[in-house]
């Protein structure tokens, strides 16, 4: 398992979706993959991702992957991406 949060500390991959002025950032799903990669067995391991986004009040928000991230993760071996939509609602994208 790897965990990732959105942040501005790493080299930008593309423009983020936060409202406070668009800043280049790494989306949480890519960061999580970077954290988990060392635990994958073998170079061609496949993996599944579960992504949850909470707002500052702890409410569950939509965390569907953006097209850029999903395409990158698919190329890296991601087989399914489960994401929060709202409290109690989940979506899943498979490759
Ligand atoms: Zn993204």
Strand content: 25-35%
Low-pLDDT windows of residues: 8-21
- The whole-angstrom Rg is 13 Å
Secondary structure: helix percent: 10-25%
Largest sheet: 3 strands, mixed
Number of strands: 7
What is the 3D form? Answer: globular
Number of helical runs?
Answer: 2
Number of domains: 1
Backbone structural class: alpha+beta
Q: Give the integer mean of the pLDDT values.
A: 79
What are the secondary-structure elements, in order, as H or E?
A: EEHEEEHEE
Spatial strand order of the main sheet = 3-6-7
**Ends: how far apart?**
20 Å
List the ions, cofactors and other small molecules found in this model: zinc ion
Which descriptors would you attach to this protein?
95 residues; alpha+beta; 3-stranded mixed beta sheet; two-stranded antiparallel ribbon; 2 helices; 7 strands; 21% helix; globular; binds zinc ion
């Amino acid at each position: 398992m790897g965990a990732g949060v959105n942040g501005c500390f790493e080299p930008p991959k593309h423009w983020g979706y936060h409202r406070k002025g668009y800043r280049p950032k790494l989306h949480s799903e890519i960061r999580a993959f970077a954290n988990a990669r060392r635990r994958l067995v073998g170079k061609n391991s496949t993996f599944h991702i579960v992504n949850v986004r909470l707002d500052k009040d702890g409410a569950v928000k939509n965390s569907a992957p953006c097209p850029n991230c999903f395409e990158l993760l698919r190329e890296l071996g991601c087989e399914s991406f489960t994401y929060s939509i709202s409290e109690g609602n989940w979506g899943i994208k498979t490759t």
